[in-house]
Amino acid sequence: MSPVRSRLEEVIAKLRARGNRITPQRIAILRALISSPEHPSVERIHELVRQDLPTTSIASVYKTIELLKEAGEVLELEFDQANHYDGQRPYPHPHLVCVKCRRIVDPDTDGLEDLGRHLAERAGYRLVGQRFDVYGICPVCQSEPMASPPGLAPATGDKQQQGR
Ligand SMILES: [Zn+2]
Ligand SMILES: [Zn+2]
User: Fold this and answer.
1) Residue 164 forms part of a structural domain
2) pLDDT bucket at 151, cuts 50 / 70 / 90
3) Ligand 2 mean position, distance from CA 146 (Å)
4) What are the tens digits of pLDDT across the range 109-137?
5) How far does the centroid of ligand 1 lie from the alpha carbon of residue 97, in Å?
6) 123 alpha carbon to ligand 2 midpoint, in Å?
7) Hey, what's the torsion of the CAs at 104, 46, 83, 135, to 10 degrees?
8) Domain check: are 137 and 60 in the same one?
9) Is residue 70 domain-shared with residue 97, that is, in the same domain?
10) Distance (Å, rounded) from C-alpha 21 to C-alpha 67?
11) Which of 47, 85, 108, 117 pairs with 131 at a CA distance of 20 to 30 A?
12) Are residues 19 and 76 in the same domain?
């Protein structure tokens, strides 16, 4: 079974066990969320679901996300413009955010899984939560012709990339 499919079944079983109704529309919303590696917003999930079920309202998407939050089966990432959701990994983990296309991906955290706990422990904190976002320009955006040419380091001084 594919990871997406088994994750989808796991989430459906969890919602059923909580007594939540599982409708075809709800399954479509869950599938759009879980199969998307891009950490979609509610608007994006709505777009995806409407390709198959055009009558789906955005309220249904909000409602399903609420249920997932109550069940602890989705990670909500708050941003200024719109919140984004990770239905594959519903626990805190680092994210890479592209400042150009706004795509959000899960980096390879091999060997760094315990970073938050280590940082907290070292300072005598009891860990209750963590959020770790790294901002940059993704490989796709770097290779786009509109992006600044590679190798053009701000060595000559007063370019806007230069810090103050
Ligand atoms: Zn990008
Ligand atoms: Zn993620």
Assistant:
1) no
2) low
3) 28
4) 888 888 899 999 999 999 999 999 999 99
5) 8
6) 26
7) 20
8) no
9) no
10) 10
11) 47
12) yes
Considering every ligand atom, which ligand is closest to the CA of 140? 1
Range(s) of the domain holding residue 55: 1-90
- Residue given tokens 């999930």 in the structure block: 45
Q: Identify which ligand lies nearest to the alpha carbon of 132.
A: 2
From ligand 2's centre to the CA of 94, what distance in Å?
A: 7
The domain total for the chain is 2
Centre of ligand 2 from the C-alpha of residue 162, in Å:
30
163 in a structural domain? no
Contact criterion met (CB below 8 Å) for 61 and 49: yes
In a shared domain, residues 77 and 133: no
- Structure token pair of residue 113: 């899984």
Identify the CA nearest to 45 among candidates 20, 18, 76, 72.
76
- Quick one: 96 and 86 in the same domain? no
Residues 36 and 103 in one domain: no
Do 86 and 97 lie in a common domain?
Answer: no
Q: Give yes or no for a contact between 87 and 35, defined as CB atoms under 8 angstroms apart.
A: no
pLDDT band at 2 (very low <50, low <70, confident <90, very high): confident
Distance of CA 78 from the midpoint of ligand 2 (Å): 12
